[in-house]
Specification:
- The protein has 363 residues and is an alpha/beta fold.
- It is built from eleven helices and 13 strands.
- A seven-stranded mixed beta sheet has the order 1-6-5-4-7-8-9, sandwiched between helices.
- The relative contact order is 0.10.
Length: 363
């Protein structure tokens, strides 16, 4: 198998070391410990400010122990005042001290409690909410689509699937780059940060319950490993993989891919066709772009079409899928149509906002 050299789109080293985690589209608290430390520093600032306020007006306070207040007494008073209701051993007795307590000390006490209690509640609430959302998501996730690699190929594949009516909530993006997964989250997709060649990463994406897996990695060797791992975890899913070099396509099929697209060769053929006939190239590009102009899709044979010839259907039939055989429209064995057949047809794209007549089969 041919291995590629340093890829121009290779991930940064720190991104490759990212922890394997599930990221839901809604942003949550990233690092609770950092949030707690930040709040503790804010609380410490409030405490220090309170100490200096009391120390500046220490003549207006009365200490039952030794009458006067030194700096340590001010620290003690500020601490017990902010954290409790006070013990009564040090009390403000002058009008200025009592006014200072009303206008400054009491608001600072409330702010101090909000910072400490609010931090705990926020962290617990966010963590609990995040765990609840993920557990609920895992229980409800069935027959979804896993997209490995959210680059140009992965995005284009998703756009085509979404044009056929696929719900964004039934898509899980897997990519080793945290920044890429963040971009997927921004578009409404759930993401998993990690190396998809590792089974634990695909298990986080619930690939064992997936209906279809799209593999659009940057390297052919990575695509082979991901295909092997995905097929081992899910024997029934439809796996479609993209490779750069045509000589690696047979290895992908042997690894368990149901369909292999050679990106470099496909682009080259489209370029050649456009040179020979720009109009033909435009039509081909329109056919593979779902949701506009003409669409190329797969659908089952209707009961009313059983027993008829290929040309007697309402749609323009390109091929007939019978079992594992793909018969061209002019093959004598293509007709009459059988109920178990599936048709590859060309239809006019549905208007925007209208669901596609029949989405492509997932196997």
């Amino acid at each position: 198998m041919k291995l590629h050299g340093q890829d121009a789109m290779a991930r940064e080293a720190d991104e490759k070391l990212a922890q394997h985690r599930v990221q839901m589209p809604t942003r949550v608290v990233g690092k609770p410990l950092r949030q707690v430390m930040k709040r503790l520093l804010m609380a410490l600032f409030v405490l220090v400010l309170t100490v200096f306020i009391v120390y500046a007006d220490r003549e207006g306070y009365h200490d039952n122990a030794n009458e006067t207040l030194d700096f340590l007494d001010c620290v003690y008073y500020a601490t017990v005042t902010l954290s409790t209701t006070g013990y009564g051993d040090i009390v403000p007795y002058s009008d200025s001290a009592r006014l200072m307590n009303i206008l400054l000390i009491t608001p600072l006490r409330v702010l101090f409690l909000i910072i400490l209690v609010g931090t705990t509640l926020e962290v617990l609430t966010e963590r609990t909410r995040d765990e609840w959302r993920q557990n609920r998501w895992r229980k409800q996730l069935r027959d979804h689509t896993v997209v490995v690699g959210f680059g140009t190929k992965g995005r284009s594949a998703l756009q085509t699937l979404l044009a056929t009516g696929l719900d964004k909530q039934r898509v899980v993006v897997v990519d080793p780059s945290a920044k890429v997964v963040d971009a997927a989250n921004a578009e409404g997709f759930t993401g998993v940060v990690g190396d998809a060649t590792r089974s634990e990463v695909l298990l986080r994406a619930e690939v064992q319950k997936a209906r279809q897996v799209v593999i659009a990695t940057q390297r052919d060797d990575t695509a082979v490993l991901v295909t092997l791992t995905a097929r081992q975890l899910n024997r029934g899913a439809k796996i479609v993989a993209a490779v750069r070099e045509e000589e690696n396509a047979p290895l992908l099929r042997q690894s368990g891919a149901d369909a292999v697209i050679t990106s470099a060769s496909a682009a080259g053929r489209l370029l050649g066709l456009s040179v020979l006939s720009p109009s033909a190239g435009t039509v081909m590009e329109d056919l593979i772009q779902q949701g506009s102009g003409l669409d190329l899709l797969e659908r089952p044979v209707n009961k009313s079409e059983v027993g008829k010839g290929v040309r007697e259907t309402s749609d323009l039939v390109v091929s007939v899928l019978r079992g594992h055989r793909l018969l061209p429209y002019d093959d004598p064995h293509a007709g009459p149509l059988q109920l178990t057949d599936r048709l590859i047809v060309i239809v006019r794209a549905a208007p925007p906002g209208t669901p596609a007549a029949t989405p492509p089969s997932a196997g």
